[in-house]
Write a structure and sequence with these properties.
The radius of gyration is 23 Å and the shape is globular. The protein is an alpha/beta fold. The chain is built from 9 helices and 13 strands. It is 29% helix and 27% strand. It has a 6-stranded mixed beta sheet with strand order 5-6-7-3-8-9, sandwiched between helices. The protein has a 4-stranded antiparallel beta sheet with strand order 11-12-10-13, with helices on one face. Strand 1 and strand 2 form a beta hairpin. The protein binds adenosine-5'-triphosphate. Adenosine-5'-triphosphate (ATP) binds next to strand 2 and helix 1.
């Protein structure tokens, strides 16, 4: 089978078993240049196993793994390793080195030119602590140093295992800002995360792993549609206007009065615009209108609780 030159990573019918445990089963998944995918799944779903296969730390039991068009456990892959930036789930650094010395150490391992790494440290907000020993760093600071380490050498593929673990809300936002910048530069990004709320609108595609199987892969809107999740239009208006809107749109079961003066209309995403057009007829009578799409968390629950299969819902 030929691998598309735009594909940075390509899994074809990959399975991995550890003794009797089927950690991954028949996974077909790929990642295009400049795009991002979030790997989500319960504990033991197979996320770390998939990452280990990408890094060439283990071999598949069957199927084919290609990263930069090479088999990651082969000798031919060695010169390509420096094109991957990897953030492990737990960053264990030498406590006696400073943040800057740590980056210098990892840069040497990657065969990069020596530098002061001021920009890298500044990017993760560690410039002020650059010359302090890592042993004095907080958990969040060590995590940010881990991100800076992963970004060394402008990698073409970033593999980030729980990148925002232990970070405060501002630092989390900064990590996603950095991920966006890396994508702009052309890097591909694979994130493994349990924090679904922060992935909404921040990643191109989601891959849902369930007991070693890829139950879904696609953009969030496509996954929503596949599980037939409803959009919700919530509007505030005087009682009389609400009654008229209820008559004008949909069936009574689609409309719920949340509280006085607030109406919620549940609809299929593809009917949203048509319903909005009907509502807008009452223009001046409406005080406020909001549209809520089901969160990734709800989409994930729907996939986990249903038998909807079919990866590559793209
Ligand atoms: P978590 O979210 O808890 O990190 P995960 O999705 O990363 O979980 P994996 O670590 O990939 O899951 O594990 C998938 C399955 O494979 C689990 O049942 C795990 O116990 C099993 N497993 C992983 N590594 C080994 C190993 N070296 N030997 C035996 N079983 C293993």
């Amino acid at each position: 089978m030929k691998m598309d030159s735009q594909m940075v990573m390509d899994f074809a019918q990959v399975s991995k078993t550890y003794g009797k445990v089927k950690a991954l089963e028949d996974i077909t998944l790929n990642l295009a240049k400049g795009s991002s995918v979030a790997l989500v799944g319960h504990n033991g779903a197979g996320k770390s196993t998939l990452i280990k296969l990408i890094l060439g730390l283990i071999k598949p039991s069957s199927g084919r793994v290609r990263v930069f068009r090479q088999e990651p456990t082969s000798g031919a892959f060695n010169p390509l390793r420096c094109k991957i930036g990897y953030l492990p789930e737990q960053c264990l650094f030498q406590k006696s080195l400073t943040g800057r010395e740590t980056l210098i150490f990892y840069a040497q391992l990657k065969g990069l030119k020596a530098g002061k790494f001021n920009d890298s440290l500044e990017r993760v907000d560690l410039a002020a602590a650059a010359d302090r020993k890592v042993g004095t760093y907080s958990k969040g600071m060590r995590q940010r140093l881990g991100v800076a380490q992963a970004l060394l050498g402008a990698p073409e593929l970033l593999v980030l295992d729980e990148p925002t673990s232990g970070l405060d809300p501002i630092a989390r936002q900064n990590i996603y800002k950095i991920i966006g910048e890396e994508k702009e530069r052309g890097a591909s990004v694979l994130i493994s995360s349990h924090v679904l709320t922060e992935l909404d609108d921040r990643i191109d595609q989601v891959a849902i792993l369930n007991k070693g199987k890829l139950t879904a892969m696609g953009t969030i809107p496509i996954l929503r549609r596949k599980v037939k999740m409803k959009s919700e239009i919530i509007l505030s208006a005087p009682k009389l206007v609400i009654e008229q809107i209820e008559k004008s749109v949909g069936t009574p079961r689609d409309c719920t009065r949340k509280r006085d003066g607030v109406l919620s209309i549940s609809c299929d995403p593809e009917n949203k615009i048509a319903i909005l057009e009907k509502i807008m007829v009452f223009g001046a009578g409406i005080e406020n209108i909001e549209i809520q799409e089901p969160s990734l968390e709800l989409v994930y629950n729907a996939y986990s609780n249903s038998n909807i299969g079919g990866a590559q819902d793209v």
